[in-house]
Amino acid sequence: MNLSELANNIKLWGKELGFDQVGITDIDLKAHESYLKNWLDKGYHGDMDWMARHGMMRARPEELLPGTLRVISARMDYLPPEAQFASNLKDTHSGYISRYALGRDYHKLVRNQLKKLAQKIEQEVDALGYRPFVDSAPILERPLAEKAGLGWVGKHSLLLNKDSGSWFFLGELLIDLALPIDHAGVDNECGHCVACMTSCPTQAIVDDKVVDSRRCISYLTIEYDGVIPEELRQAIGNRIYGCDDCQLVCPWNREAEVTQHTDFHRRSEFNNADLLTLFAWTEQEFLDRMQGSAIRRIGHTQWLRNIAIAIGNAPYDDKYIPALTARLGISTTLDEHLNWAIKQQQVAAAQTPNLDRKKQRLIRIVEKGLPRDA
């Protein structure tokens, strides 16, 4: 068997399956173990206890699949057309959703294509042990992708590629076949630029390639289901699911190409939907509308929590306080954010010039918890 020819074919097959780049690397991540341990020791993983529980396994792919000799790392671009970055962030009456989550959930899609790639390899060899991963196991995907020549890890800790910036998903295929490896050969092109670090709304990038998840808006709105610290709420703005700020300011993202995968295009539900519209969804409407979306896994209550914070940060609107008040009582965690948002809207109302008496009276009625026709 010609392993070099097989390695070249794997990259061709990867392109045919929709991957934008494929690389092959060994499993040696020893150089990253001290960094990982230090990151965990400082508690930067927040409430993601599984990260600490798996410990150094993240840097040891062979513990995930005994006999692993190589990792095939693949990227799939996801930047949708008409991304509407500026308009969504500037219109504070609408909710900003991280661009990766506007379309179909990538986990199953990328994993299925990795499995198909493995099956193609399997047809060429006598036997193949393999296992695909897409955010589904403790593995250091970015260092592996860097070793495989897919790019370099930027100061925001994301992988950067000269052609696609950081707008892509990563997936890994662990195999027990000793294929020739790709040498990284990709220089770190960040230089002295610190735009991602200085632009983070919550200052979550605490050092070069080091993110404190406990301050990261993506972590807070997606992974964390508790009470978001009050001192971070205003900085969240209208970001109701994830955050792209560190990517938006990155010079390497200015010329990134739009994805060819229609699965990652914007859902119709997110076409100029304002906060009130999204906040009004019942739990069943949320589940139905978010079918096949990564957003579905956070659940309806957390969805409401995130939108409540955005409403609290929005300019005054006489529809907000009644909408927030109507959601009280679902959970104590949600109530904490609803009451905060109500107070924020009350402050905004007091600062709104020429607010007519009818609206002022409505605010006082809601504050007292009286029926609206009192």
Task: Give a quick precis of the structure.
The chain is an alpha+beta fold and 374 residues long. The protein has helices at 3-16, 33-41, 49-54, 61-64, 85-90, 106-122, 141-147, 195-199, 217-223, 230-236, 245-248, 275-279, 283-289, 299-313, 320-326, 332-350, 357-368, and strands spanning 21-25, 70-77, 96-97, 130-133, 152-153, 159-160, 168-175, 205-207, 210-211, 239-241. The chain has 17 helices and ten strands.
Description of the structure:
This protein is an alpha+beta fold and 374 residues long. The chain has two domains: 271 residues, no CATH class; 101 residues, no CATH class. The strands form four sheets. Strands 1-2-7-4 form a four-stranded antiparallel beta sheet, sandwiched between helices. The protein has a two-stranded parallel ribbon with strand order 3-10. It has a two-stranded antiparallel ribbon with strand order 5-6. It is elongated and about 80 Å long. The relative contact order is 0.13.
